[in-house]
Design a protein that fits this description.
single chain; 227 residues; alpha/beta; Rossmann fold; Arc Repressor Mutant, subunit A; five-stranded parallel beta sheet; four-stranded antiparallel beta sheet; 41% helix; elongated
Amino acid sequence: MARYKILVVEDDRTLQDVLRFNLAKEGYVVNQAYSGPQALEIARHEQPDLILLDIMLPELNGLEVLRILRRDYTLPVILLTAKSDEVDKVVGLELGADDYVTKPFGLKELMARVRAHLRRGETVPVAAQVINLDGLDIDIPHHTVLRKGSPLDLTPKEFDLLAFLARNKGLVFSREQLLEKVWGFDFAGDTRTVDVHIRWLRQKLEDDPANPRLLVTVRGTGYKLEA
């Protein structure tokens, strides 16, 4: 089995050593960066399969690193944050982060999330499938979406969420179900992640995001993609 490369971006050297040791024990190849600029340089040269990215970094913070990374890369990014303020987490998700964990975190939980994101990258469609829905052409194998013939710039997790709802169009899913089905693990009950991604999908899919007619809310239950 191929050995995945993981880039750990964290300026706390003690935590860096702990993460490197535990990731290596799981069989991963670990690259380390201690600042924002160093993270970008290593990401470009090493082409990691996943990045663990601290928000509070010297020289260039993690959110700016993420913003730059998302111009060229679609690899999974898990944010590490010590902040209790939800704003950084929400901004990170809006910039294209796939996940976040709040320090102090359990190593078992973090490793489970790493494995879940890497497994999702291994998924290969059984056959080519393009879903056509109300002006949208969702190409599942190629991870592309056209809206009225024009390509949409979706983050990897936005695409995953849209593709899941499109495969199950007309069915209603709770936030907890979407976390399980799309993120692939228990997200500690934080349903804000789903709401953020739904909101940003609406900005890209709907003619009037404030009054969506495609990606709709079912009050008291969850969300569905109208058939």
